[in-house]
Write a structure and sequence with these properties.
Blueprint (H helix, E strand, L loop, with lengths): L1 E3 L10 E2 L8 H9 L4 E3 L3 E2 H4 L3 E5 L4 E5 L5 E5 L7 E6 L3 H11 L5 E4 L6 H4 L6 H4 L1 H18 L11 E3 L1
Parallel strand pairs: 2-3, 3-8, 4-8, 8-9
Antiparallel strand pairs: 1-9, 1-10, 5-6, 6-7
The chain binds flavin mononucleotide.
The site of flavin mononucleotide has 11 residues, from loops.
Length: 166
């Protein structure tokens, strides 16, 4: 996970977990209203995100990532910008980096799902599948190291501090 290590300390924090079909913007704002310190979006798939365009929605005061079929895949807003972690499903470091670059100015951190055991995630080599294939992990490692270097260039909001890639 890539976070701004100064502004997003996880110690003793109330966190809304990532939940597919649940962790959308209304739920995240409600969680902030009820005292959450950090909120995760639902897992969003890299290939889907890479089809999206970033659109500023003047009517709702949101930033929308809109698919070619006009579906809003990810919606966020200024109020959660310093609190929201963008979680993606990916099995490819280059795609992950491209998605990170797409959302970098609108979120506080970026998380790659490496724990989901559901077929939704594992069928494409994502989620828990990333951990269960040692050969793949070995192949991914150099790409990840490359990604770490490139990640240093990402501009996340908040004070300028060293970035963490967990
Ligand atoms: C409906 C639902 C959807 C979930 N979707 C995700 C997800 O997209 N990404 C993820 O990492 N975990 C997902 N999880 C797992 C939760 O984030 C959390 O880790 C799990 O529910 C255990 O939380 P608990 O220990 O507080 O019960 C999901 C869980 C539920 C119930």
């Amino acid at each position: 996970m890539l976070v701004n290590s100064f502004s997003l300390c996880y110690h003793n924090k109330l966190i809304l977990a990532p939940m597919v079909r649940v962790g959308t913007l209304p739920m995240r704002l409600l969680a902030l209203d009820y005292g959450a310190d950090i909120v995760y979006c639902e897992e969003l798939i890299d290939l889907k995100m890479l089809q999206c365009k970033r659109v500023v929605n003047e009517v709702l005061s949101t930033v929308d990532f809109v698919a070619p079929d006009d579906r809003v895949v990810f919606r966020t807003c200024k109020r959660e910008q310093s609190r929201v972690i963008f979680q993606m499903g990916t099995s490819d470091a280059e795609r992950a980096l491209a998605v990170a670059r797409l959302v970098e100015n609108d979120v506080a951190g970026i998380d790659v799902n490496m724990g989901c055991p559901k077929e939704y995630s594992t069928k494409g080599g994502m989620g828990a599948a990333l951990l269960s294939d040692p050969d793949k992990i070995e192949k991914v490692r150099p790409a990840r190291e490359k990604a770490e270097v490139l990640m240093q260039e990402l501009e996340l909001p908040g004070p300028s501090t060293p970035l963490l890639w967990i």
